[in-house]
Specification:
single chain, alpha/beta, c-terminal autoproteolytic domain of nucleoporin nup98, Rossmann fold, 2 domains, 7-stranded antiparallel sheet, 7-stranded mixed sheet, 14 strands, binds S-adenosyl-L-homocysteine, RNA-mediated gene silencing, Methyltransf_12, metal ion binding, Small RNA 2'-O-methyltransferase
């Protein structure tokens, strides 16, 4: 089984640096299922091709099987030595590991450069045919040529097989191409030679980082990669959907922040953080976790007050955390200050040991960013598992929206809000949550109160019974 990667980048011999394999050498590697060989059939400044040849040993593999397993003829005679399958993914990760992970000590510049690349897979068992090949590779920006093989050239009546020779072409970083192949080859094959467990889920999410969440066929890819194991599939999909949403939130909040612009004249944001800070102070908390800390404005205020000995900011958005780190000047804080504050990447809809053991948690303008099923998960994560003594939560008061002349009647304050509640709705929700998880709750207005509509923000303070 042969995989050939070709580039016409100039100088094309850079491919040797990227793959960490010298173009003049023929190299062989022992793998658990046979051997892998790397060689370059073509080397020039204009064009360079590297081959990864797998020599799978089906007999050796059967011999290594546990003794009491029944050995069938199929174990000896099968297509595995001749087709690209999950064995190829294993070989890619073991033989081209540095390239797969985007590392190149000698030439870090070319790792991040998209290059004109072609990958030829000699024989790919593609159940789903050419249409499926296109559905998978084209959204990733590749052009694709696929040639289907007949079952037997001597007997054309037998028709076509499900085996294809496939050529994909695109301008990509080499690590991108290898990650795509690593995940997708077993997806076409739809058969895997090793047990699929939690570890596979993590591998899929790591190798799929940055592209799988946005792929229109992510469900099919995930289901097939995880060998149709429903529970793993659902976990993976939930995490991919979340990654996609985060990317969307980030792209929306990148340039302007309508909510902040809208609320600016009242500097509501500052009033909100001031009120939350005062409430946290009076709760006596020494350790505080700011859940959905965003760009770290509340963290900065907390850091100024010595009462708070341990301050954690957590958010699902990496971009927000990077901005928080800049705002807090984490790199330059004196040692004692730096020891008090930490940023954590995480999501409020998954149980997480790191959220436990705090005196207080802040949830400032976060819950309205979650769809109802996710909000239900957040409730359990915060009030049942993390269970801080005090939770200070704020959310917009929808009734107040009429006071903003520039906000059309049917719109939320921020395009990412999934809901905005009236005072009654917020209080009903908070009372229900408090009763369910053994907390008391009291409500406070934040910002200037107006007749009939109340204050712009509503705050709930939950405390352990
Ligand atoms: N608390 C901050 C930011 C509010 S904006 C402040 O008062 O300024 C809402 C924040 O919630 C965003 O930073 C968003 O990334 C974060 N968020 C949304 N869904 C989340 C989730 N599931 N887990 C953790 N944070 C989340």
């Amino acid at each position: 089984m042969l995989l050939t990667i070709t580039t016409t980048h100039s100088p094309a011999t850079d491919l040797g640096f990227l793959l960490h394999k010298h173009p003049d050498r023929f190299q062989s590697f022992d793998l658990s299922f046979g051997k892998a060989h790397v060689f370059y059939p073509e080397v020039s400044e204009e064009r360079c091709a590297a081959c990864l040849l797998l020599d799978i040993d089906p007999v050796g593999m059967v011999r290594r099987k546990v003794k009491d397993q029944q050995v069938l003829l199929d174990h000896y005679v099968n297509d595995r030595p001749y087709v690209a399958s999950s064995f190829m993914s294993v070989a890619i990760s073991q033989v081209f590991g540095s390239a797969l992970n985007g590392r190149c000590k000698d030439r870090p510049d070319i790792v991040t450069t998209p290059l004109p690349l072609t990958a030829c897979i000699d024989v790919l068992p593609a159940r789903g045919g050419e249409r499926f090949l296109r559905q998978i590779f084209e959204p990733l920006g590749y052009t694709i040529k696929a040639q289907q093989h007949s079952l037997d050239e001597l007997f054309p009546d037998w028709g076509e097989s499900s085996y294809f020779s496939v050529k994909i072409e695109g301008t990509k970083r080499l690590s991108e191409l290898l990650n795509h192949l690593y995940v997708l080859i077993p997806v076409f094959d739809n058969r895997k030679h090793y047990f699929v467990g939690d570890d596979e889920l993590e591998k899929l999410l790591a190798k799929g980082a940055g592209w799988l969440a946005q792929h229109p066929e992510k469900e099919q890819i995930t289901r097939r990669y995880l060998k149709h194991q429903t529970s793993l599939f659902q976990t993976a999909l939930a995490r991919l959907v979340e990654e996609e949403q985060t990317a969307q939130i980030e792209s929306r909040t990148k340039d302007d922040q309508p909510e902040e612009v809208l609320e600016k004249p009242m500097s509501l944001n500052e009033q909100r953080h001031g009120t939350v800070l005062a409430t946290l102070r009076s709760s006596g908390a020494r350790s505080v976790i700011d859940l959905g800390c965003g760009e770290g404005k509340l963290l900065r205020e907390l850091l100024k007050d010595r009462q708070f000995e341990q301050i954690i900011g957590m958010d699902v958005s990496i971009r927000a955390l990077e901005n928080a780190s800049k705002r807090l000047k984490l790199e330059r804080l004196p040692e004692r200050q730096a020891a008090r504050v930490q940023l954590q990447h995480g999501s409020l809809i998954y149980r997480d040991q790191r959220l436990k053991g705090f005196d207080a948690a802040a949830l400032v303008e976060v819950i309205e960013h979650l769809d109802p099923p996710r909000l239900a998960a957040l409730e359990r994560v915060v009030f049942e598992f993390a269970r801080p003594k005090t939770v200070v939560l704020t959310t917009p008061n929808q009734e107040f929206n009429v006071m903003w002349e520039t906000l059309p009647a049917d719109q939320f304050r921020h395009s990412d809000h999934r809901f905005e509640w009236t005072r009654q709705e917020s209080q009903d929700w908070a009372n229900r949550v408090a009763a369910q998880y053994g907390y008391t709750v009291r409500f406070l207005p934040v910002g200037q109160e107006e007749k009939n509509v109340g204050s712009p923000t509503q705050m709930g303070v939950f405390e352990h019974v």
